[in-house]
Amino acid sequence: MSSSRRNLAAEDGAGTMLSLALLAILISVTFALSLRVSTRTNQALVISVAQLAATSASDALSGYRTGHPCEVAGQVAELNFSKLTSCTLYSSGVAVKVSYRGLEGNARADFELK
Cα(53)–Cα(79) distance, rounded to whole angstroms? Predict the structure, then answer.
């Protein structure tokens, strides 16, 4: 009898340790997934800012809005907490590149004169 009691006593707390280990694994996986989702969300936001900047620059190029197209694109990017890293003017539109926290977004907006 005493040997079986010693075996049971040696296993006291094993369930607690197993539960803590599983909880630690669950927290780690949840944290890793949240970082991945956050990065994808930020990438989508950077692309949206690039599209806004390109559209605004295209409006300035077409005469619908005042100002130099690249300056307008820079202002729009700044208002959205991003930085305009590239702006290229074409005869019918503009292409921009915007960066935010190491992520980049590209967009091009063309216009049609009527």
Answer: 10
For residue range 96-111, what is the model confidence (pLDDT) as tens digits? Answer: 999 999 999 999 999 8
Backbone conformation region of residue 90, classed left if phi is above 0, alpha if psi is from -120 to 50, else beta: beta
Q: Is the pLDDT of residue 112 over 80?
A: no
Q: How many domains does the chain have?
A: 1
Rounded Cα distance between 57 and 95, Å, is 9
Classify strands 103-110 and 83-89 as parallel, antiparallel or unpaired.
unpaired
Q: Determine contact, residues 62/21, Cβ cutoff 8 Å.
A: no
Q: What is the DSSP track for 25-91?
A: HHHHHHHHHHHHHHHHHHHHHHHHHHHHHHHHHHHHHHTSS-S-HHHHHHHHHHHTT-EEEEEEE-S
The pLDDT value recorded for residue 62 is 87
Cβ-contact 72, 56 below 8 angstroms: yes
Global confidence as pTM: 0.72
Domain that holds residue 45: 2-110
